[in-house]
Design goal:
heterodimer, A: about 180 residues, alpha/beta, Rossmann fold, 2 domains, 5-stranded parallel sheet, 5 helices, about 35% helix, B: about 160 residues, Four Helix Bundle (Hemerythrin (Met), subunit A), 6 helices, about 0% strand
Chain lengths: ~180, ~160
């Protein structure tokens, strides 16, 4: 059997900077992903997702008129979303903790800080291939399980106070 | 999807939703991601991106300088510069942009207004570093250390 395993994948790059789009496309090409669509902001990306299958999304965070956070929320939560489970790697220069947490809570699969390197991007793709994340659906969130650490003694899927909205189990211990 | 979310949290395991690729493809994909040939091709792509990235940074620098006291624009542009500088080989530019990003983020988080003189000092240092043909890392580190100390003092 030949090929890289990536040759049948369709990727989508959502990034407002043409140079970065070009670099990301070249990096995806280098692993064998040749079918790559591009969008300059979240709204255009949603249009593409409706019309074309995408197996992997690389998205910037700061874009207009729709940024990467809103785009991710729409992908995960919209009734018309073509694939709410699609892996989304958020690539951004905004690396402050509260922004990383906002990306996580929007439902991104992996987070990658700019400046990017080939190794960093490939390691995020490898995580998606090798260790796919479980998804969690609750009233306040739908997306990849935000728990990175597995605690053997903890049986529940709940993690955050928001997960208990309108749920009488809110007094349960949150780890 | 989440509109029909249950009252209690539901866990959906990876084998219960469509994966990016099957197991066979996954094994080949992992081999490809770890191969020297892939990394060599990727390195060529990174090197080819450096020149246009540098041009983009100089454009952002012009826009950042033109923004003057428009702190929102300075904030946006300096984050772009921070994101691209290292890829373009502009280490010092990226280092100083990083300090300004952290300062502006911290000030915003605290609900304060950025100090105009400090921002102007950083903008000037970033512009000088970006437009300099040779990236003097040692001098850049010295400038970065001094600006970091100043930013910390003013962020308090």
């Amino acid at each position: 059997m030949s090929g890289t395993g990536f040759e049948h994948l369709k990727a989508l790059i959502v990034e407002d900077n043409a140079h970065m789009r070009s670099l990301l496309r070249a990096l995806l090409n280098s692993v064998g992903i040749k079918d790559v669509a591009e969008a300059a902001h979240g709204a255009a990306a949603l249009e593409i997702l409706r019309e074309r299958r995408s197996d992997l999304v690389l998205s910037d965070m700061a874009m207009a008129p729709m940024d990467g956070l809103e785009f991710t929320r729409q992908v995960r939560n919209s009734e018309t979303s073509a694939n709410p489970f699609v892996p989304i790697i958020m690539i951004t220069g905004h690396t402050e903790r509260h922004r990383v947490e906002a990306a996580r809570d929007a439902g991104v699969t992996e987070f990658l800080a700019k400046p990017i390197t080939a190794g960093n991007l490939f390691s995020r793709i490898a995580l998606i291939v090798e260790r796919p994340r479980a998804f969690v659906r609750c009233e306040s969130y739908f997306g990849p399980d935000r728990r990175r650490r597995q605690i053997d003694s903890y049986a529940g899927p709940w993690r955050r106070a928001g997960d208990f909205k309108d749920d009488d189990s809110k007094d349960r211990e949150i780890r | 999807m989440s509109n029909s979310a249950p009252k209690t949290a539901q866990m959906i395991s990876p084998d219960a939703y469509p994966q990016m690729m099957g197991r066979q493809d996954g094994m080949r994909a992992m081999a490809a991601l770890r191969s020297g040939q892939t990394m060599a091709q990727a390195q060529v792509a990174m090197e080819e991106a450096a020149a246009p990235m540098k041009a983009a940074i100089l454009q952002y620098v012009d826009e950042m300088e033109a923004a003057g006291a428009d702190m929102r624009t300075v904030f946006d542009k300096v984050h772009e510069i921070r994101g691209f500088a290292a890829t373009a080989g502009l280490v010092t530019t990226g280092r100083i942009a990083e300090i300004l990003c952290r300062y502006m983020d911290e000030v915003e988080r605290m609900g304060k207004t950025p100090d105009g003189n400090l921002v102007a000092l950083h903008v000037s240092a970033i512009a000088r570093a970006a437009r300099t043909q040779e990236d003097d890392i040692q001098l850049g580190e010295q400038v970065a250390a001094e600006l970091t100390a100043l930013a910390r003092k003013l962020a308090r």
